[in-house]
Write a structure and sequence with these properties.
It is built from 4 helices and 24 strands. With about 240 residues, it is of the alpha/beta class. It folds into 2 domains: about 50 residues, no CATH class; about 180 residues, Hexapeptide repeat proteins (UDP N-Acetylglucosamine Acyltransferase, domain 1), CATH 2.160.10.10. α1 packs antiparallel against α2.
Amino acid sequence: MRQRFKQGWVRFWMQRMGPGRAGRLASLLAGVFTPPYKGRVALAHRFERGYIAPSASVSHSRLQLGRHIFIGDRVVIYQRHNAGPVALGDYVELHRDVIIENGSGGSLSIGARTGVQPRCQFAAYVAPIMIGARVQIAPACAFYPYDHGMAPGIPMIEQPLTSRGPIVVDDDAWLGYGAVVLGGVRIGAGAVIGASAVVSRNIPAGAIAVGTPARVVKMRDELPTLAAAIAHAADQET
């Protein structure tokens, strides 16, 4: 009886969840019987409308939400002047303290089943940020497709925004903790970026890149061969 009441309670309020004030109140009430933090992801997966935490701050007229999206505690999605769309695909997860802002013609798209861990920042100004499907983004990563001009004789605060081009992260890539990705960069499908790397040039598909600036140290398809070589060497020693 008690379990049926809980299930009915959650279902009732999740059907009323949304980015507005009333929808946020509904998500607060829906989570009464659910563990906090990532425990609420289960609500997003269960209901097509997804889950937006009551403490999230969403102020964007061009926000496009897929099915079963998860927007966690204190996430900020903010629109500035001349902002393009922000599109989140099905089953996208934005965990706590992620900040998304865009303006000056910039836009952001995040593909289906991509997970963004806490404290990541997406500042889509001037040029777009395009994240593929099933990309894994560790905490504290940052994406900046723009820069400030540095012409002499003009105060920095008055310098125009410039860009080398969009940021593109292809499907199934994995970015380690604290990686920074700059404008004009494409990270290929299945590439792995090491922790704290600064990516300022293209990384090919399937590559493993580390350092500042990030450089390729190995290809993922070499790893099985390396493992086999180590195993063979160990066999020779016994």
